[in-house]
Amino acid sequence: MFERLEDCAVIHALSGATPTVSLHLPWDRTDDFAALKERATAAGLDFDAVNSNTFQDQQGQANPTSSGASRTRTPRARAGRCAQSRLHPRREDTRSKALTLWIGDGANFPGQHNLARVFERYLESAAEIYAGVPDDWRLLIEHKMYEPAFYATVIQDWGTSLLAVQTLGPKAFCLVDLGHHAPNVNIEMIVARLIHAGRLGGFHFNDSKYGDDDLDSDRSIRFACS
Ligand SMILES: [Mn+2]
Fold first, then answer.
1. What is the reported pTM?
2. Ligand 1: centre distance to CA 10 (Å)
3. Residues 164-176: pLDDT tens digits?
4. Residue 50 and residue 88: Cα distance in Å, rounded?
5. How many structural domains comprise the chain?
6. Cα(177) to centroid of ligand 1, in Å?
7. What is the pLDDT of residues 96-139, one digit of tens each?
8. Residue 225 lies in a domain
9. How many other CB atoms are there within 10 angstroms of residue 178's CB atom?
10. Which domain holds residue 17?
11. Does residue 34 belong to any structural domain of this protein?
């Protein structure tokens, strides 16, 4: 993690435009967040939205959508406990003020899940996470059209994302990842609509041609093995 922080410092030194870092927990884990914060400050960096890995089990393996660990199929309390336990020990250390939530649930074939019920369960789980977010924080909801499920990902587009944040409350905003839309979708219009609704929370700058293109080789290997 410290090495990646140094990389971020170099990019910021060259560009002058990237003063904050979004940790992705638990991938960016460290046993010493105070030291991490100290190193970041020395490098002229700060921390912004924390990404949570709600799609991994305790062993760090990605959950297939049919897993019992799915956040839309198991009791809703699990999602709340999961996110809060990852959130609270670190917020004081990083001074982050936002949590990004992406729930990697869906179905690869018709009939695998109930399209209406899974969204209702998602909202129940997200509400518990939302309740654990401090009042001066933002909860950013990210949508992905085909990850992990190609037939029906639960939060698949900006409309569903907007429905979710409007249901959750004023601390919730939509996060637009440029890499997670269908080819030729006019993302500028999506951004305009979210601004109109007052719910544009931020961006992930992936390439619109290919989902996540910010994965380093280590993560790509990890995904390939899981
Ligand atoms: Mn993203």
1. 0.75
2. 22
3. 999 999 999 999 9
4. 11
5. 1
6. 5
7. 889 999 888 899 999 999 999 999 999 999 999 999 999 999 99
8. no
9. 17
10. 2-215
11. yes
